Amino acid sequence: MTSNLPQDDLPYKVMAIYKFADLPDVEAIQPALAQLCAGGEIKGTLILAPEGINGTVAGTPAAIDALAEWLFETGAFGDRLAGAEVKYSAASEMPFLRMKVRLKPEIVTLRAPEANPAKTVGTYVEPADWNGLIERNDVVLVDTRNDYEVGLGTFSRALDPKTQTFTEFKDYVETHLDPARDKKVAMFCTGGIRCEKASSYLLSRGFEEVFHLKGGILKYLEVVPEAESRFAGECFVFDERVAVGHGLVEGDATLCRACRHPLTAADRADPAYHEGVSCPYCEHDEAKHAAAQERQKQMELAEKRGGAHLGDGAAVAAADARARKRAEAEASRARNAAAAAKAAKR
Length: 346
What we know:
InterPro entries: Rhodanese-like_dom, Rhodanese-like_dom_sf, TrhO, TRHO_N. Belongs to the TrhO family. This is tRNA uridine(34) hydroxylase. The chain has 346 residues and is of the alpha/beta class. It has three domains: 12-103, Alpha-Beta Plaits (2-Layer Sandwich); 123-233, 3-Layer(aba) Sandwich (Oxidized Rhodanese, domain 1), CATH 3.40.250; 254-346, no CATH class. 37% of the residues lie in helices and 19% in strands. It contains ten helices and 15 strands. It has helices at residues 26-39, 61-74, 127-134, 147-150, 169-176, 193-204, 216-223, 265-269, 286-305, 312-345; strands at 12-20, 43-49, 52-59, 85-91, 99-103, 123-125, 140-143, 153-155, 184-188, 209-213, 231-233, 235-236, 243-244, 254-255, 262-263. β2 and β3 (52-59) form a beta hairpin. The model is unreliable at 1-7 and 308-333 (pLDDT under 50).
């Protein structure tokens, strides 16, 4: 396989992979895959399902190369993962805390068995050809991502389904799209995986021509010159970068540490924003504020002790759990006090 790993002298190699394939035997394969990753000190998450594989892992270049050889050539999958969408990158530090090989019903959850990208999928469109397609008047352009992702950036003229989870996309199709009217539908998502399933779903519902952006927004931002780009804003990514712009340069967006909603500069200028505690999207959620305050306190204490760098992720997770328990206990006491006060008035 040809690697697109940057030629930086960095100690870790990162592999992101997804492939829709017929894998009814994943439960039997899981132990061997987990053992291989553990033996190579690889960390990250791989999701296995009867419909395919999805995930991101990191390790030494030799360990990742050995994993790739096992996945695509010598291991229990045989040649079933041939043609997988694979992206390699390099990292100066291990980006993950542990290794998880998870079994799930789907690698991307839609809960629509009729959507099977391994059998039927829409037409892939290369990033270089995307502008010409979406500028056509007879093409309906749909962003398949969730509302908080769309809020940071999207393509001009794209419809926003305003979903909070991908499973809600089915309802959007039912109420807003019509195969008799919408003869050509083009879709896009972050890296391409959701669009594969979404395009398969539309085809199963009788839509005639369905297109999707190959490699997703990330590939588009990587290869299309900014002067020619039709993407406005930043693309949300599911790691500590929060969002990226053209050339995959880290963007300006940050995360609210209370509710995890991505925030633009305008959001951070809102009076409801308090760094590390609250934002305009959670300003009335006292439980989240209490959890955020406790988390910040725990991280500061850990930093003073010099022990925070289990990794900030571990510190955040531990602080979140403690804060959540404390907030739940306080909320329970408040409810009990209110109930007692109400009973006393009777």
